[in-house]
């Protein structure tokens, strides 16, 4: 039968004792009870002394007898039902080679608690040269490259050393004790850097354990790039580099702002003054030479050109001046342009701004492109739309600033207009530069609506 089974006659419950639940019972030849209430169980591998309640000396419930322990070294293979307990308490076992007889109470338990020692330490299957014997070492220090190592140990009980048992654990690495059986060594691979304590316990042949065992501290320092000081140093270097990069960027922005201020000031003071002087001189000469028609017309042309250049220069100064990089200033400039272009032509206009979500600051390039698009849209209305009313809106939709210009002019059919008509190609290109797009809705007699989308960052 596979193991033992105990039937409780009172409750009818059956308890199983076999290898699945830790008992050394596989095939059972016979069972014989001695006068102390212990069961002697014959199996192909050993004679087993079994007591369900265990013994105080070891706390174990069974004891193996194979070749020694007072039995003949050539214990015969027992025959089925070939055991007999005499009235005097002597147990007779019959086998194919003869009979063995003994008194169970004379088989003494080996109560010796074996000392446990370390016998060898190797790394990568190569012995490690230590300054003293591994048996006396308390700590072993390795390098981060020595993460594969083997530790050998022994329980110093020589009664039947082949039946000595071991259990070990590397604290900080193993979660539980590892039952090693009679294999007196432990191998670890790829142990990460850290501080560990290797503990091992051992027993004699009768299962008397040295619970305290022996321990060995194992230290594996991390490589320098994993050490705390290196990480602190690296973090400090990264912070310093970021600080330097930030300071460099701030200095560059400040230098750029100073350059823009200087350009705006020079254009306004030098070039602007010169153009104003040219326009004024031309006007005075025109008045003095009013009788000479040809000269007067040429002077008028010079004055007009100078005034246009002054207007263009003012827009350049406005675009370059860093003090103008704000939405409020840009909107005010757009209102001024609408008043200057539409009011003299008798075109009524409304200017609405939905400021919710719009940024306070507008970069120079963004502001310049947006204003030139707006200027081109108003010029198209004045030149081509024949409108009497214009509605201008500025708002935010998702990640875009939207500029919308609607008029009640004559409108046009998009299919009949080339893309470059009315400067639309220029508007499309500037919108593309702003990572945006242009939407046009127009029909003859129904006016025109143009929406320009510019992506905000």
Write the layout of secondary structure elements.
Elements: E1 4-7, E2 14-17, E3 30-33, E4 39-42, E5 47-50, E6 62-65, E7 78-85, E8 91-95, E9 98-102, E10 116-123, E11 126-127, E12 139-141, E13 149-155, E14 165-171, E15 178-181, E16 185-188, E17 194-203, E18 209-220, H1 228-288, H2 293-320, H3 327-342, E19 348-353, H4 364-385, E20 389-397, E21 400-407, H5 424-433, E22 437-442, E23 448-455
Parallel strand pairs: 12-18, 19-20
Antiparallel strand pairs: 1-2, 3-4, 4-5, 5-6, 7-8, 8-9, 10-11, 10-13, 13-16, 14-15, 14-17, 17-18, 20-21, 21-23, 22-23
Helix pairs in contact: 1-2, 3-4, 4-5
What does this structure look like?
This protein is α+β, with helices and mostly antiparallel strands. It contains 5 helices and 23 strands. It has a 5-stranded mixed sheet with strand order 12-18-17-14-15, with no helix packed on it. A 5-stranded mixed sheet has the order 19-20-21-23-22, covered by helices on one side. A hairpin with a 5-residue loop joins strand 17 (194-203) and strand 18 (209-220). The chain is elongated. The model has no long low-confidence stretch (mean pLDDT 83).
